[in-house]
UniProtKB/TrEMBL annotation:
Keyword Lyase: no
Name of this protein: ATP:glycerol 3-phosphotransferase
The family this protein is said to belong to: Belongs to the FGGY kinase family.
Domain Carbohydrate kinase FGGY N-terminal intervals: 4-250
Molecular function GO terms recorded: ATP binding; glycerol kinase activity
GO biological process: glycerol catabolic process
UniProt entry keywords in alphabetical sequence: ATP-binding, Kinase, Nucleotide-binding, Transferase
A cellular component term, taken from the record's GO annotations: cytosol
Keyword Transferase belongs to the record: yes
Domain Carbohydrate kinase FGGY C-terminal span(s) in chain numbering: 260-445
């Protein structure tokens, strides 16, 4: 019987389950897709029960993918961040849908709160996050207003407010209500300097502390499973961590000089630091993870990268991403088109909700291929915007930009990113880095490995994209023109 850690990565669009052996190798996989609902303009929701059922399905698929019998030593969890759900403590019945990180329902409340500049500044100093509907705080405040007797029930401790990891663990154990420091830090309710729920923010938003979970380490046994689909009772849940943080850990981000970029629907660029860095408006300061020590993180969240390519693909009437890549490859490298995909405003480093998407440089000679290529270029330019801010804050030289996510399989895109930044891009063979990172943290918690030094000895294979000096100058020239396009996107209509 093969000993494994079951690492569950619950994302926005699917749930993946991986089986990791003591050598850190992935020996089994399973995946189940998730649906997303858009019930009204600005509202984005998911079904909390569907998440649980798709977890069970992906676990079964992962176990069945291995011919030999497996003994699961521990469960590890990485999860989509900022998405939040409220449920009844006594029954586990959801009181809301999962309100997605993409949901903008609390935009008007954020606008009102930002008018109080003293409070707005306090929130950013305490949590490291700019007031924005992406974070759960304001959505939770509105949800409690809409639940009958919501505030009274919250004060009595009858309501649980949790990010998706908390919901997962609650259902797997049937009674444990916890979160880890990385997920707590993304709620905009957690004081990252004092490392506790912030009383000032809770009071202003009318959120009772009794609704919130206990904050624990990212690498710690928090409870045992009850029978859960294919999972037996009595398996320790040994890690939980936000997916972007988990990817950074999986890339070895606990070492100096490592920055990671996760490319997906949106993108995240993140670096870890052992001490609390300065709070900056352009990027978020957060907690990367907590194990035997606390690591802080600098992060920039980009709203539209993969989704920008897909949006442009649909507008051009191209059938598939593969066909979009082929079309973009036919473009003149010196074309004049720049696409700023501010389709719901701009995230880091601009945080401009009023910005609108624009195509700049259109001419009578512009071809469909030029527009297609501009969509791919918008990804590397947006990553560069955030990377440059983070690199200015780090005390050491950046050795690698470690990358993961579906778009990183595009070799042209990764080489262009390396050429633009002048930094080597390192892409691992295993795509599911978030799950692997959570699995490594779980292995440390149960004694599979005694220290992070041992993780360095595990087998890893990478593809490197080294920057080319002649192309660096070409991309820097185009990057300057991108900066002009950004200014046009930020002009108010």
């Amino acid at each position: 019987m093969r000993r494994v850690i079951l690492a569950i990565d619950e994302g926005t669009t699917n749930v993946k389950s991986l089986l990791l052996n003591p050598q850190g190798e992935v020996i089994g996989k399973g995946m189940a897709s998730l649906s997303i609902r858009f019930p009204a303009a600005g509202l984005v929701e998911q079904d909390p029960f569907e998440i649980i059922e798709k977890m069970k399905a992906s676990i079964t698929l992962a176990i069945d993918s291995v011919e030999d019998d497996v003994a699961i030593d521990a469960v590890a969890i990485s999860n989509q961040r900022e998405s939040v759900v409220l449920w009844e403590r006594s029954t586990g019945k959801p009181l809301t849908q999962v309100m997605s990180w993409q949901c903008r329902r609390s935009e008007s409340l954020c606008d009102t709160l930002r008018q109080d500049q003293t409070f707005s500044r306090y929130v950013q100093d305490a949590t490291g996050l700019v007031l924005d509907p992406m974070f759960p705080a304001t959505k939770v405040s509105m949800a409690l207003e809409q639940i009958p007797d919501g505030h009274v029930r919250a004060e009595r401790g009858e309501i649980c407010v949790g990010t998706v990891n908390s919901w997962m663990i609650w259902n797997m154990t049937q009674d444990v209500f916890v979160t880890d420091a990385s997920n707590a830090a993304r709620t905009q309710l957690y004081n990252i300097g004092e490392q506790g729920w912030d009383k000032t923010i809770l009071a202003r938003l009318g959120i009772a502390s009794e609704t919130l979970p206990e904050v624990v380490s990212s690498s710690q046994v928090v409870g045992m499973t009850k029978t859960f689909g294919s999972l037996k009772s009595g398996i320790p849940i040994a890690s939980q961590i936000g997916d972007s943080h988990a990817a950074l850990f999986g890339h070895g981000g606990y070492k100096a000089g490592v920055v990671k970029a996760t490319y997906g629907t949106g993108s995240s660029v993140m670096a870890a630091m052992p001490t609390l860095p300065s709070i900056r408006h352009e990027i978020s300061t957060t907690i990367a993870w907590q194990d035997d020590t606390l690591f802080y993180g600098l992060e920039g969240n980009i709203t539209h990268t993969g989704s920008a390519i897909d949006w442009a693909r649909r507008m051009l009437g191209v059938e598939s991403i593969e066909a979009m890549c082929q079309l973009a490859g036919q473009a003149d490298p010196n074309h004049s088109v720049f696409f700023v995909p501010a389709l719901s405003g701009l995230g880091a480093p601009y945080w401009d909700l009023e910005a609108t998407g624009v195509f700049c440089g259109l001419k009578s000679s512009t071809e469909r291929a030029d527009i297609a290529r501009s969509a791919f270029e918008s990804v590397i330019f947006q990553v560069a915007d955030v990377f440059n801010v983070i690199s200015d804050e780090l005390p050491e030289k950046i050795e690698y930009l470690c990358v993961d996510g579906g778009p990183t399989q595009n070799d042209w895109l990764m080489q262009a990113q390396a050429d633009l930044l002048g930094v080597t891009i390192r892409r691992g063979e295993v795509a599911e880095v978030s799950a692997v990172g959570a699995g490594l943290l779980a292995g440390l918690a149960i004694g599979w490995w005694q220290s992070k030094d041992e993780l360095e000895d595990l087998e890893n294979t990478f593809t490197l994209f080294s920057p080319r000096q002649d192309k660096h100058e070409y991309w820097q020239d185009r990057y300057q023109l991108w900066s002009l396009a950004i200014k046009k996107a930020r002009l108010a209509f």
